Amino acid sequence: MAICAFLVAGFAIAIMLILRGTENSLRLANDRLGADIIVVPVGTTTKVETALLMGNPTEVWMPESNLATIAAVPGVAAASPQLYLSTLNNAACCSVASMFLVAYDPTTDFTIEPWLNKTIGRGLKLGEVVGGTHVFVPEGEQNIKIYGYFVTLKANIEPTGTGLDQSMFLTLETARDIARLSTELAEKPLIIPEKSISAVLLRLEPGTDPMTVSAEIIRRVPGVTPITSPNMFQAYRQQMTGLLASILLVLGITLVLSGLLIALVFSMAANERRRELGVLRAMGATRNFVLRSLLLEASILALEGGLAGISFTILVFFLFRNLIMRSFGFPFLLPNPGLLLIEITVGLVLALACVTIAAMIPAYRISHMEPALAMRE
Amino acid sequence: MKIIGVVLIVLALVAAIVPMFTDCQSQGKSIVLENGKTVAMKCHWSGRAELVVAVPLFVLGILFMVNSNLLVIRNLSILGIVLGIFIILIPTTLIGVCINAEMLCNSVMRPILILSGILVVVASSIGLWISFKTQAKPV
After folding, report:
1. Are residues A162 and A254 in the same domain?
2. A58 inside 8 A of chain B by CB
3. Is residue A110 located within the same domain as residue A165?
4. Which of A122, A364, B131, B134 is deepest in the core (most CB within 10 A)?
């Protein structure tokens, strides 16, 4: 019975952790990006979303001239270009392999610069970078080497549970400086195509409909795809919906099977103690007293199994969160303690309900048996 | 006690064997020095240190299985708890593993060792509790 409760509670909390963790992660990533609309070259939506969510570097390009046209669309309050780059893999000139680099324009940026001003009191200078929460200076070194160029890590952004945690943010000036010097310093030069950008981040005026602005952008600027904030990471949300359906099915099957098993096991266990329960009834215990005792025993076992299941599941998710993220290909962030407590409570209640309901019928049958019958061999 | 003994033996094998296949050395990665020589990263040394803890834990598991004396079980349980704590400390505090979250040693080896250590502590604690509970029963 305790094992069934272990499984039910463990499954329930696993589902909640996955769903909440992914949703939380997507929301934080969205907030971190800070844009109402991101305009990317047509056909690159999935590549860009994967880069932002999973940190898999990508390089996409569109003409720089698109920026002015997009910024002139009615409803656009601010437009800021970004370049998407990456470090080299297995190269001595890069101390971090295959890292996603985002180069932004500090004069027009409205997401990173305000955060930097709040955090370090100023923007980034030439040669300085900001990293995701997992970006660090290699042990024994003072700076991070990118294409043979040493950059100073000034700050780390808060964890989002997405690929942004393994990404690096630098100014366009620093990116171009790295590209210029990489021809001499790096094993392979960093190439930034002339007059090209990867994406344009837009902030809209209050009250503006993003869909209207998107339609206008498509009309005025051929070869681009605007991604509105609510539709950001839509592919991943759909993937999660599909995963949710499968997980709920497995949970449903587990609940039904656990319930049947608990009823069977409890029936056998109570039957073994039939004579003792009969003696108890003969001594004056009421049917309700016997029923309550049996259900209390089942509940205690359910709580013990449930707590063990929940503890084990949370521990596994906490220890293996990076592996889970990489293996399943979706972002994940553990919930804050308050939310975790609510999820634990829900898991325990589910385990308790499952076991108690399953034990109800055999407990009722045994408690309502005539004492003389119960005590018979 | 036999069950606890088997659990400890299995966990000792996990602590000894898992690092052999999940440290950076097994993935062909190592630090290349200026003079061209290669040096293993600290995850490799953590794996080596785990052997030092896993072997006595393995023996402990066998002793758990063949002993029924409560005092002996109690002492073995205390030793088990200490060994479990060391299994956790080696890849986290005492030596550590690579900091990069994408490395196998960080995403697989370290969590498995921590989980194994916790389970060793739990199993040994159960053994300790049983030894006290059994003794408390009236003759």
Report:
1. no
2. no
3. yes
4. B131
Same domain, A130 and A58: yes
Residues of B with CB under 8 A from a CB of A: 32, 99-102, 106-108, 110-111, 114-115, 118
Answer whether A95's CB lies under 8 Å from A148's CB. Answer: no
Tokens of B77: 């349980």
Q: Is residue A230 part of a domain?
A: no
3-state DSSP assignment of residue A39: strand
A273 lies in a domain?
Answer: yes
3-state secondary structure A110-150: CCHHHHHHHHCCCCCCCCEEEECCCCCCCCCCCCEEECCEE
Q: In chain B, what percentage of residues exceed pLDDT 90?
A: 58
Whether A244 and A217 share a structural domain: no
**Which residues in chain A touch residue B32, judged by CB atoms under 8 angstroms apart?**
92
Residues A170 and A286 in one domain: no
Q: Using one digit for the tens of pLDDT, what is the confidence trace for B35-71?
A: 777 777 888 899 999 999 999 999 999 999 998 888 9
CB–CB of A322 and B106 under 8 A?
A: yes
pTM of the model: 0.73
Same-domain check for residues A208 and A245: no
- A69-83: burial string, b at 16+ Cβ within 10 Å, e else: ebbebebbebbbbbb
Which of A222, A246, A272 is at the close of a domain? A222
Sign of CA dihedral A209, A213, A214, A219: positive
Q: Is residue A31 part of a domain?
A: no
Which of B101, B108, B118 is facing A134, going by the closest CB pair?
B101
User: Could you tell me if A243 and A285 lie in one domain?
Assistant: yes
- Domain of residue A256 covers 2-22+236-375
Decide if A87 contacts A97 (C-beta within 8 A): yes
pLDDT of residue B139: 47
Residue A228 lies in a domain: no
Domain count, chain A: 2
pLDDT tens-digit readout, A4-28: 778 777 877 887 787 777 777 777 7
| CA dist., res. A179 & res. A177, Å (int) | 5
Q: Are residues A85 and A183 in the same domain?
A: yes
pLDDT in tens, A24-73: 777 776 666 678 888 999 888 888 887 777 777 788 899 999 999 999 99
Q: Are A177 and A211 in contact (CB under 8 A)?
A: no
Q: Nearest by CB to A136, which of B99, B108, B118?
A: B99
pLDDT at residue A261, rounded to an integer: 81
- B108 to A323: CB separation less than 8 angstroms, yes or no: yes
